[in-house]
Amino acid sequence: MSGTRPLLEVRNLRVAYGGIQAVRGIDLTVGAGELVCLIGANGAGKSSTLKAIAGLLPVTRESVRFDGEPVGGMRAFELVRRGLSLVPEGRGVFPQLSVGENLAMGAYVRTDRESIAADLARVFELLPRLRERRNQSAGTLSGGEQQMLAIARALMSRPRLLLLDEPSMGLAPLVVARIFEIVVEVARQGVTILVVEQNARLALQVCHSGYVLESGAVSLHGAAAALLDNDAVRRAYLGE
To answer: How far is the CA of 46 from the CAs of 26, 33, 98, 143, in angstroms?
Structure first.
C-alpha cells in the first residue's frame, strides 16, 4: 500500500508522565485503507502512543495530523466527530448497560437516525453473537464477547481511523483468532486501522506494515512480511 495518501501522520510525538519520557519523539504514518501494527515489549510506549493520538494525553498540536489537519491535543470527543475512534485496552464496555445500549453510546456523536439503524444492522451482520445478546447486560458477556462489543461500539461512530489497543489481551487463542478475523474484515470494508498488539506474530501476519517500539522510540518499521523475516524481530518478539 505504498503511495497511499496518509490519513494519520505522527511527527516527533512525545509523551511524558512526570519526569519520565514514555514516548521519545516517534514518527509514524498510516495510509488510508491500511492495517498497521505497533509491536514491542511492555513499557515500550505503544499504548501511550495510541492514547496520545486519540486525544487522551497532552501533546503538541502539530505532532498529530489527521487527514492533513493538525489535531494533536484535541479532546477525544472532537476526534471521534472527525472520524477517529479508540477501542481501549481492557475493552471498557459499560457493564451495567445492555449490549444494545452500549452500541447506542457508540453513535452518541451522530444524529442521522436512518444511517445509525443501517450501521447497527451491519454490525449485527458482522457480529451475530451481539444480536443474540443485544438485551443482555454487557458485564455478563465473556471476555471475547466484550471485545467484540467494544469494537462494534467504536464502529457505530462510523470511524475513518480505528485505533485498537491490545485487542487479544486475556483471551483464549481461538477467541483471539476470531477477533483478528473481525479486524481484517473491518479493514476490508474500508476502515483504516492502527493496532497495538502483544501477539507480534499474529499482528504481523494480518497487517500491511508495522512499527517496532523500544523504550519509547521506533527501532524498526517496514512491510509486515519483512518484519516477520527480520532476525532481530524473530529473536525479541517471536520466540525464535
So the answer is: 11, 21, 31, 22
pLDDT score of 158 more than 80: yes
Listed residue (187, 165, 191, 182) closest to 39, CA to CA: 165
Question: 457493564: which residue's cell?
Answer: 95
CA nearest neighbour of 30 among 59, 55, 58, 10: 10
Q: Give residue-wise pLDDT tens across range 204-221.
A: 999 999 999 999 999 999
In sequence order, what are the residues at sequence separation of 6 or more whose Cβ sits closer than 8 angstroms to the Cβ of residue 57? 15, 48, 51
Output DSSP code: residue 208.
S
- pLDDT tens digits, residue range 95-120? 999 999 999 999 998 889 899 999 99
Instruction: Return the CATH number at 106.
Output: 3.40.50.300
Residue 1 lies in a domain: no
First to last CA, the chain: 28
Cα-trace Rg, the chain: 17
The one-letter amino acid code at 133 reads R
CB 160 within 8 A of CB 7: yes
Is the full-model pTM beyond 0.90? yes
| Residue 101 belongs to a domain | yes
Residue 171 lies in a domain: yes
| Number of domains within the chain | 1
Nearest to 26 by CA among 211, 222, 190, 162: 211
